Amino acid sequence: xxxxxxxxxxxxxxxxxxxxxxxxxxxxxxxxxxxxxxxxxxxxxxxxxxxxxxxxxxxxxxxxxxxxxxxxxxxxxxxxxxxxxxxxxxxxxxxxxxxxxxxxxxxxxxxxxxxxxxxxxxxxxxxxxxxxxxxxxxxxxxxxxxxxxxxxxxxxxxxxxxxxxxxxxxxxxxxxxxxxxxxxxxxxxxxxxxxxxxxxxxxxxxxxxxxxxxxxxxxxxxxxxxxxxxxxxxxxxxxxxxxxxxxxxxxxxxxxxxxxxxxxxxxxxxxxxxxxxxxxxxxxxxxxxxxxxxxxxxxxxxxxxxxxxxxxxxxxxxxxxxxxxx
Amino acid sequence: xxxxxxxxxxxxxxxxxxxxxxxxxxxxxxxxxxxxxxxxxxxxxxxxxxxxxxxxxxxxxxxxxxxxxxxxxxxxxxxxxxxxxxxxxxxxxxxxxxxxxxxxxxxxxxxxxxxxxxxxxxxxxxxxxxxxxxxxxxxxxxxxxxxxxxxxxxxxxxxxxxxxxxxxxxxxxxxxxxxxxxxxxxxxxxxxxxxxxxxxxxxxxxxxxxxxxxxxxxxxxxxxxxxxxxxxxxxxxxxxxxxxxxxxxxxxxxxxxxxxxxxxxxxxxxxxxxxxxxxxxxxxxxxxxxxxxxxxxxxxxxxxxxxxxxxxxxxxxxxxxxxxxx
Lengths: 326, 326
Fold this sequence. Notes:
The structure is a homodimer. Chain A has helices at about 5-15, 25-30, 50-60, 65-70, 75-90, 105-110, 125-135, 150-165, 185-195, 210-220, 245-250, 260-275, 280-290, 310-320; strands at about 20-25, 35-40, 70-75, 95-100, 115-120, 140, 175-180, 200-205, 255-260, 300-305. By secondary structure, chain A is an alpha/beta fold. Chain A folds into two domains: about 5-50 and about 150-320, 3-Layer(aba) Sandwich (Rossmann fold); about 50-140, Rossmann fold (3-Layer(aba) Sandwich). In chain A, the strands form two sheets. In chain A, strands 1-2-10-7-8-9 form a six-stranded mixed beta sheet, with helices on both faces. In chain A, helix 6 links the parallel strand 4 and strand 5. Chains A and B meet through helix 6, helix 12 and helix 14 of A and helix 6, helix 12 and helix 14 of B.
């Protein structure tokens, strides 16, 4: 897994992925006490950065693999990214999703043409289900984060951040990245190491799911015990990956943890001042910028808003209960 | 008022305005039955295209005018656009807003440093209040649409649409534009006439406020009697302008009228499939594309999503009551 693979993925994605904007608003700067730049991956195709990794992985398959099809497990963003990329290349796709995944994510995954198989998050092991399907039906498993071509695709976000930060005059800044298993974080970290060494990647996790923070502190992979019913469904992985962790250990600053309430407040701020929809798991980076300013270094901060696929009820709760008086 | 003024405004705005993206989603295409491209001016600074006109107007003032300050009347989007541009150039700004303007708009206008004066939409004449303030305090009045440098600024949206449509391979299409007094519509029309003559501007209005449609049909300026409590606060002007109407008459196709419910449904679609926040008045163009497909011509359609400044209660209503089953 290296920088050259990210450059190669960027070429495969060129013309297909959206070059998402880096947005600002003076109200965000006022709350955070410094300039805040928001990389709007919620505006990516399928509503999250996962489109990049899905496309990168699908376009790396052999002809025979494409014909047989792929399987992926995901709470919904990787699902949609893989489904859309697979459909564009006429590759059959089976997606294994938890039964409690947001309805919008499941509906869109099916709408994009994938076969969805539901499993019980509490009682069943999604990785085992995926592996079994792969074996039984000859499908290629596209893992959500611990997979080189997926990391390479997510890393293209980092290439764009490097270019956009330079254009905005930002040379030294923390880059706050919503982090589940570390695919996006490690991909961005590799891209920034090569292209913008003054930008420091910082994984951000929701309270109770701080396995990456703990792993970085311990210097080895740590696991957490997931609790059910968590809001940030996109980033609930219990531990960083075998591939992603060594990259994060080498290149990332300390992890940051935010509460679910802070994620909801960040969603309300993005609603009010960026006119954008973020999902809870896609808002933890912004929450860290806004509500944990002491944990970031440097004059500016860059936030990756990683996704915006959220059910109406949760979004309504965020904006009506957490509107910010500014 | 001509194309050269738009090019000049584009130069004054370069580096300050946001070049907003032209977005797509397969779900929108499926609803509309054709390809839909959404020009996301809700992602412009201050959350609407009005920033362009405000900046264009402020940067056209003489040194003496800047020192004395400006006055503008607006339900909130022109207000914020003028307020932000004025603040950036150290120009004092007084904004005359209706007392029933959305709270978010009033709060942001004040936050941006403008002095806000409220008036009663039913009993008082905002134009007269603005004119009186201009005279008493030596302020320059920046009218919301019937003002050459404002039209020139809004027209820069059209320059970008022409370029982005070409890049997307769109040569013949209707361009559905949320229309109040016609500043945005006439500016875009002039830009497209010069840069992309295959793109036909079409004003879109909410039911009961179809003064532009009626005027185009009659061939002369017609007025409507505004009713109170309308949702699309941004585009409730009772008649097109003396400057904007002749341009629209010469260059626009027939007007399209949508209901408030259709605007709310379009907001729900944009929430679900573009992860963006639109306000009712900024969603009528998308509503026309999605729910009035028979009224547009050509294989593709371009929508200008003109703004996204909406109070949480109305947005919640849109997404919880009008979620689209796709």
